[in-house]
Amino acid sequence: MGFSLPVFGTAAAEPGGIARYAREAERAGAAGLWVGDRLLSPVAPVVSYPGYDGMPEEFGTAQDPFVALATAAAVTETAILGSSTINATQYQPANLARLLTGIDVASNGRLLPGLGIGWSPDEYSAVGVPMAQRGKRLDDLLDLLETWWSRDLVAHQGVGYEIPESRVGLKPVRTPPVHLAGFGERALRRVAERAAGWLPVWAIPEQAPVEALTGTLATLRADAERAGRDPGALSVALRVNAAPGTTPEQITESLAKVVPALEPDHTFVDLTYLTRSVDEHLDLTGTVLDRIAKG
C-alpha cells in the first residue's frame, strides 16, 4: 500500500518534511510514495476544481512534484516513486525527459511516471502553452520519451520545438513504465494503444460503483489486444482520494471493497485533505497500515 507525499497544504511547507515523511513511511511499510501536480491555486479560477466552488484550500501551498520525488529518492531504497498525476503537457518536453530520467537513476529504477494533460486554463496560460493543443502535445511527448530513453543520439521535431541531433548518454535504470490518466474516449484509447498502465481514481465516500472502474479496465484491455498489445501487461495504479473527515476505518473498509474487485498493481491513498502536518501524515499512514495488516 502506498501513500501521498505531503506535497499540498501546510504540511508541504515544513522544512525537511518530505524527506522525513518518505524515510519514516517506507520504514513503516509504505510500498509507494506518490505526488500530484498543482502549479497555481487561482483566487477566481476559470474552471473550478471538480467538486469545489473554486479551489481547495490545500492547493494554496504546493511543492514541486519533481523536487518531492527527487527528495524521496535520496532517502528511500525500496518504495515505488509515482505521480498521479503530473500535468505533463505544461512542461518543456526535453526538460521533462531529463527530469524523469534523473529521478529514475537517482532512485535506482523506482520511478513510475503517471502523466496527464490537466484541466486548468489558468495553469496553461501561466506557462504559455495553448491548452487546445494538450492532446497533440501528449502524443508528441510520448514519442520523445521513447526516443530519449532508447537512443544515444536524439533528434526530434516536436510540437513547437525542435531538438537537433544530440548525445543523450544518461538513460534510466529501466524504461520507466509511463501510466496515463483519463476517462474520456480519446484518453482511454491512448492508454490502450500506448501506455504501460492506467491511472484510475476511487473516491471515499464512493461516488460511483466499483463496476465503473472494472468495466472500463475490461474495455481498455480489449482495446489493447485489438491494437496488438498484451492486454494482461496493462498495469493499473489506483489513486484513492479520501475526502475531508474520512476516518481510517472508512479508508480500510473502502480499500477492502475496491482492491479485490479491480486488482490494481499499485494502490495509494491520498491523505492531502486529512492532515495538516507531517506528524499527522505519518500517524495516519501508520494507522492505515496497521489496520490493513490486521485485516
UniProtKB/TrEMBL annotation:
Pfam families for this protein: Bac_luciferase
UniProt source species: Amycolatopsis jiangsuensis
Residue span, Luciferase-like domain: 12-259
Swiss-Prot/TrEMBL GO biological process terms: alkanesulfonate catabolic process
Keyword presence, Phosphoprotein: no
A GO term, aspect molecular function: alkanesulfonate monooxygenase activity
Sorted UniProt keywords: Flavoprotein, FMN, Monooxygenase, Oxidoreductase
Protein name stated in the entry: Putative F420-dependent oxidoreductase
